Records
---
Amino acid sequence: MKWISPARLQNLGIQGMNRRNLDFIGRYNERRLYPLVDDKLKTKILANQYAVPVAQLHFVVRHQHEVRHIEGRLEGLQGFAVKPAKGSGGKGILIVSERSGDTFVKPSGNCLGLDDLRRHLSNILAGLYSLSGVPDVAIVEDLIELDDCFQGYSHEGIPDLRVIVFRGYPVMAMLRLATHASDGKANLHQGAVGVGLDIATGRCLNAVQFHRPVQVHPDTGQKLKDIHVPDWPSILVLAARCYEMTGLGYMGTDIVIDRSRGPLLLELNARPGLAIQLANNQGILPRLEHIESLAGLRPEPEARVRYAMETFRG
């Protein structure tokens, strides 16, 4: 194992957890605003109020007695996503890509029965996946359809984009690609591939899996260096608009691209992780400090995006 000194990390502009928590999360995120992003249902309602596009909500399961009769509410749904409203790190998310009667098929091909689905919903309500173990609610929403631009780049699941937004400016971005190891979820800790993206163009800069550099997708063999996210400025504007929507100064915005509906806000995170620096192979601190040094903030999201694209070009 190779080690690197703290001084070297500082010279590289790497942001550590303490610096993130004290200087950015603690300073720029008011505690009263956390419930807006810690609860996916509240985020979805808020996004609708601000005309920020999100996946369609089918229904919410709030009480254990509703679980017994869930088959009636699922009638007519062939594919859907089940999520804990207060979950984190992708835990508790269940994707059903197709079904045959009371048999529900995951993107991996594994099948679940109606009792399995009831058990999963019951666990969500009991708080098994919630941030602090408190009782939760289950969200059932529309299934995202893979955009053609990502064919071969994601396996058994839908990729998503994480954009770090600081004081309304997008400062760093990565694409997270689902793998068999991650069970079709775009979660780096579970084995998804993280692809660092050039803020100016949306093109691949670097890629990692399990914190190690990779050149191709481990399941499909597709070369990652060829990735170029389409409609990139619109995606950054969508991320930047979340600053006005939530009032949070430092956050992670998670966005998916649906085949027919285009970019959609998936969720927001008031405590975004640090692995995005590994995916980009560079530290985020110089960019954050640059934004802090600005005398005045540009009022329009489009203007902030243009500034970030010009300033942080990879």
---
Amino acid sequence: MTGHLAGFDGDDARFDVVGIGNALVDVISHAPDAFLDEHGLTKGWMDLIDTDRAVMLYQALGSAVEMSGGSAANTMCGVASFGGTAAYIGKVSDDELGRVFGHDLHAVGVSFRAGSHDPDTPTGRCIIVVTPDAERTMNTYLGASSLLGTTDLDESAIADGRVLYMEGYLYDRDDAKEAFRHASTVAHDAGRMVSLTLSDSFCVDRHRDDFRALVSDQVDLLFGNEAELIALYETETFFEAVTELRKHCEFAAITVGAKGSIVVTGDELIEVPPRSVPKVVDTTGAGDLYAAGFLHGLTTGQPLARCGELGSIAASEVISHVGPRPLVELRTLA
């Protein structure tokens, strides 16, 4: 257990939250089913693709809406929407989509720290084809985003953030693992708090031992959902996973689907009910925005129950429409 929670020092911080993650641009286009057949796409699936296929599909789409995406970037945009200050560290290329990514973050008030450019690797993108039946077929090219390493970190920004927020999706390469540990050390040396989102159960399965070690050694606050926490500690039940978690991490915010969320501390479980919405339209980004609300509450000194409530408010807004980012200023809902 890291022991940095009690020493959390945010009074002199330039940013409330500094996020690190996969910098991806969502490229969304409407196309007939024939487009899927022509390019060998399976409706409703998400495939990881290579550079050549990413470039080919991007050129074949024609008109499309391009907007910055990525899990941690969504969270930073949510923090800014609440009125907080946020910075984001992610790797893009010096190309059109890289410029789109930076522009979108700056437009909502998030400070973007791009790291170094790799001239041979295009900016990562998630190509989303929406067919007339509203089904979304996704092809993800991680591109430059997956190459983030220690040299891409803006250490001054990390040291100037009340909370460091790291995205588990980025954890596939050894360079990224080293970058996470280095960033955590920089944050802790500056008296800051370190948080991690587990991102995905499959991601946890791939890196379970490394994630466990990172949580135990470096993480003060863990985000995830019920399935991810059970996968992390390989238990039969959620409460068994909580018992293991308490041995390694000071506190956690765990979403439990339609039941809301549970904030786990060393000696209590704080149950936070969900916010009802008239109709759930798209759950993409729900966990990202929950983290945004929780972090905003935390960095403004709110009780943990209120932090969870702010998370629920943000998640309920984003699931009420298509897309992973809020369409209204979250500060007006809080």
---
Amino acid sequence: MHKTYLTAALALLSLSGVAAAQKPRVVIATGGIGGVYYYYGTVMAEILSKYAGVDATAIQTAASVDNILLVTEKSDPSRNTYYCGMILPESGLLAYTGQLDRFKDKPATKLRTLFATYPNYLQIVTTKGTGTVLQNLAGKRISLGAPGSGTEIEANLVLQAAKIPLTQFSKVERLGANESAQALADGTIDAYFWSGGLPTGSIAELSQTLARKGKQIDFIAVPQKGPIAGAFEKAFPGLADVRTLDKKVYGSARSVQTLAFWNSFSCSSEMPADLAYNITKATFEHLPELTASVQSAKDTTVANALRLSISKVPYHEGALKFFKK
């Protein structure tokens, strides 16, 4: 009798081990600490682990470009491992079509969108008195964002559209969200580019730090009627628009117009349709858990989810199944 029970127990343990091994592993590529990508992706990992039948973890990255590489090159069906990532839509489009240097030889054609998340605002952060337009930054010390980030790509595209070469700046750094904020607070740079949701934690903290020093945070404007906004609309039709960054968000010197892009929560075409469906379903059925932790996630809604349909980067069939049910 005892031997029979022991055999049955061992068989049950064996079966549970097989089931555990078959549980998909999902790795969510986020961004740097201090940016919304990092916090959004971390909460998403918790939601998916609880409700999507997967073992999900979030990892810190340099954001969009790194995330595209991870999603398209590290997903491995043979190991039941799939990467998802937060991605700026213009970075995704340029990678998918092979227009970015890192993707010229191998376009990211495996990239797929699961859903649009929230708008990223281009935030060109500085202090009151520096100036109001990009040309005022000539001769100044700036940061373009972390290497391999969508912010860096966006910053370079903005400067090209404004016809401002990097040689016009006295120093050009490539720092992440926290590092850029710290450098501005310390006075080692005069301005920096950041593409992120509102509010971005590191900028909110920077505003308080500057106030304690008797300074006030300010932002360079990218106006609706100007060459930069026009160039982005031409290059990325339907993906970029101009919105107002209200001075109330960070207690800044003034409200400014700036570019905004809807972020994508993306995956690989190699992800099985049922897994993509389960991830999407778990997200939208448990949005209160996401919005409770990430303010920007208030814009993650079924109504906004398909905003990126105009892009050449296709949606995953599993996600579409959920939205079209």
